[in-house]
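Structure (tokenized):
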């Protein structure tokens, strides 16, 4: 709408907001949807000003796909918004460097666990850096915390929450009557003593799960007071979270697929021992969807960040794309939306450039000052509202549109610049897309390997169009592929 209309509207909105104080309006406080209570709840840390937060990290058995990175981008936005609101963070994230899949892959590759996981840990850190994801205060591999896991399992054993079978130790879910409270499922009919040994399973397979797995020939294991073995996947998060953050966390977060069984099991393990709530707020990010299917490595429909970037998109555009859909909504990844995201980022950069370089007439247009203030308020209220990033962006873009129009009409004045820049600065503290990244010319070896892995998956699911596209894309970068019986070899032209 034109400036006069906007002006009218903003004055009436302003009168509603005048004399407004945050404290008197509990509705406007920071709040999150809590999976545990199935409600949107006001958030404040339990103790002082520090938020003690745990998020489940990557399983480094392969490259992260953009779906995984959507969840980690959500975690980054959460961190940044908590800090914007004046909180300090003590945030722990694990790196799962031992589980069923890693052991299988490492054995198949003839590598030790560490040799195998190192390359993917490195690739994950590179992806996070490209997406400007802040490093948690503690980012730490599971295998460095075996003693903490053993201690926790020994404690559960002493409390009678476990039983042994053939050298493995299982969690007896019947010992924890609240089992199912996070996923809101009634598991009371589950047959006592039925067990599940795999790390990943779904509700239909809900059973007593393995805390400590007996050694198998050729597999890595640790000697310990509870016998030789290796941890099941779920125990590491309970152990690491409580080791660093204490018995009750403020926030525990991860992707929606972790609600069951992973987080349900974390609750059982932690609360079974301490009798205290393990986490006050449980936040879960919805999935990124590709061609109406959840992006997943096991389904074989995955796209890596390296794959997208090698099509020429700047990483900031992907960051913007992953951040722009509120985390509790599914994000549909299409071939077009990186382009749309890149355009949106460009629009904001152009606006910033105009603000910084154009000469404007002296003075201030009062209505624009009001609009900048309203945009800031709407931006903040939207983020406070369970990180509604779509609304927050709408507030910024609406202002940018009006300000651009005002500039063209000569109605934007020099004193309108600082509030506009202030709005952009606040926006960028969270979204962090205005600064262009230096493009590292050419593809790294890791990027080439990731694309080859993606191509192999495409071929396996008979998506030859995609496989060909990847081969062409690599050829354009001077990478020649040679398919052999043992897999694909490559060299630089
Ligand atoms: P993983 O490496 O499998 O342990 O997963 C790392 C994170 O990515 C977890 O928080 C998962 O819940 C999350 N995740 C897995 N698939 C998707 C997806 N398609 N979209 C968003 N997040 C996902
Ligand atoms: Zn976890």
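Design, position by position:
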């Amino acid at each position: 709408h034109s400036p006069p209309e906007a002006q009218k509207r903003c004055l009436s909105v302003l009168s509603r907001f005048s004399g407004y104080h945050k404290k008197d309006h509990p509705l406007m406080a920071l709040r999150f949807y809590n999976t545990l209570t199935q409600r949107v709840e006001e958030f404040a840390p339990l103790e002082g000003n520090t938020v003690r937060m745990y998020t489940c990290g990557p399983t480094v058995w392969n490259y992260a796909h953009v779906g995984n990175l959507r969840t980690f981008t959500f975690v980054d936005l959460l961190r940044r918004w908590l800090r914007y609101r004046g909180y300090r963070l003590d945030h722990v994230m694990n790196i799962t460097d031992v589980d069923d899949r890693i052991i299988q892959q490492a054995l198949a590759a003839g590598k030790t666990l560490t040799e195998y996981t190192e390359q993917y840990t490195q690739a994950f850190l590179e992806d996070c850096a490209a997406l400007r994801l802040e490093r948690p205060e503690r980012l730490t591999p599971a295998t460095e915390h075996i003693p903490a896991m053993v201690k926790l399992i020994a404690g559960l054993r002493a409390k009678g929450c476990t039983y042994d079978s053939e050298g493995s130790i299982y969690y007896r879910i019947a010992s924890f009557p609240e089992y199912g409270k996070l996923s809101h499922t009634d598991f009371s009919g589950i047959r006592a003593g039925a067990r599940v040994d795999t790390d990943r399973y779904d509700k239909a397979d809900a059973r007593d799960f393995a805390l400590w797995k007996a050694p198998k020939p050729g597999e890595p294991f640790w000697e310990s007071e509870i016998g030789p073995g290796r941890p099941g996947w779920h125990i590491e998060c309970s152990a690491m979270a409580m080791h660093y953050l204490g018995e009750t966390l403020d926030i525990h977060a991860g992707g929606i697929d972790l609600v069951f069984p992973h987080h349900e099991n974390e609750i059982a393990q932690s609360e079974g021992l301490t009798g205290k709530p393990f986490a006050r707020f449980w936040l879960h990010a919805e999935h990124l969807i590709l061609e109406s299917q959840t992006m997943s490595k096991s389904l074989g429909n995955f796209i890596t960040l390296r794959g997208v970037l090698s099509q020429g998109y700047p990483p900031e555009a992907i960051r913007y794309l992953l951040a722009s859909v509120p985390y509790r909504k599914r994000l549909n990844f299409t071939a077009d939306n990186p382009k749309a995201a890149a355009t949106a980022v460009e629009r904001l950069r152009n606006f910033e450039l105009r603000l910084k370089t154009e000469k404007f007439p002296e003075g201030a247009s009062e209505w624009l000052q009001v609009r900048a203030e309203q945009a800031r308020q709407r931006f903040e209220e939207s983020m406070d509202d369970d990180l509604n990033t779509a609304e927050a962006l709408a507030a910024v873009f609406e202002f940018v549109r009006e300000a651009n129009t005002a500039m063209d009409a000569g109605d934007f004045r020099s004193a309108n610049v600082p509030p506009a820049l202030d709005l952009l600065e606040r926006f960028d503290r969270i979204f962090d897309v205005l600064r262009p990244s230096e493009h590292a010319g050419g593809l790294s070896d890791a990027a080439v390997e990731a694309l080859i892995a993606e191509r192999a998956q495409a071929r396996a699911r008979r998506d030859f169009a995609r496989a060909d596209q990847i081969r062409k894309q690599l050829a354009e970068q001077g990478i020649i592929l040679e398919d052999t019986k043992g897999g694909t070899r490559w060299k630089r032209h």
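Reviewer-requested clarification: The pocket of adenosine monophosphate (ligand 1) is lined by residues 56, 58-59, 67-68, 70-71, 96, 254-255, 257-258, 285, 287-288, 294-296 (CB under 6 Å). Residues 10-26 have pLDDT under 50 and may be disordered.
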